[in-house]
């Protein structure tokens, strides 16, 4: 494939559209990985359990990717299938599906405006309390996945904040019903299996998946110079303008395609949000902000979290 110097126009990538067959194959494949991981995790003996937990961590990342694709309606050609798969994925991700679609839509609308994008507004520079600074620096240095947890809680479970962002009654009702449904389901699973058995089945796999998601989620927009509106009315950046506010990681192709559905190609995703993730690398364009994942992770971890998260490369001189 010849790589172009300029990004193709949306019209030039209109042929890259989802298909029901591709979407079904992906969902069935990811479901099989999940089933195998849970079966192995339930077997006696440490070796099979450990393999199951590593496989479960992969499966949980895959369900997050499916949630993302379903929210964009880029997994299937038949649009109504996205709500079905999205709600199943939301169970594995602990993110209500209707909340995800609303908040992630605002993220794409306001990418580049740090204080308007709900997923980056918490990283607007501000004075940090000593305990807050110590906590985030310690967790970031020792790969403790605090940030993947905060990402879920602050963006998708903070109902007071969500109701301020989406004041319409239909949004509030949908959010409350989806969140209550997940809480009821999780409560039933805990009552059925018991907390000890549930921890054995899910604990390590969940932890490993959160560690990985810390890396990939924070890589996408953190430490990149962005605009701030300061409360003024501003124009959202169009998709074609969002590449400069976005970073991609480069994983081995087998991992990028087979595990992540090319979720690591985040610049291409922001430039072409209507293209399915599993087709993104067919776009003949190499974005500027792509880095090898391990190189980026090690360099970012060497920085204190307070500098990495609340400053950008213009402030620190670190070209991350």
UniProtKB/TrEMBL annotation:
Q: Provide the E.C. number(s) assigned to this enzyme.
A: 1.14.19.-
Record's bilayer topology term: Multi-pass membrane protein
Q: Which residues cross the membrane?
A: 21-40, 46-68, 80-103, 134-153, 173-193, 199-218
MF terms per GO, please?
Answer: oxidoreductase activity
**Keyword entries, A-Z:** Lipid metabolism, Membrane, Oxidoreductase, Transmembrane, Transmembrane helix
Highest taxon of source: Bacteria
Q: What class of enzyme is it?
A: oxidoreductase
InterPro entries for the chain: FA_desaturase_dom (IPR005804), Fatty_acid_desaturase (IPR012171)
Q: Which residues form the Fatty acid desaturase domain?
A: 48-283
**What is stated as this protein's family in its record?**
Belongs to the fatty acid desaturase type 1 family.
Please identify the protein, giving its name as recorded: Fatty acid desaturase
- What is the species of this protein? Hyalangium rubrum
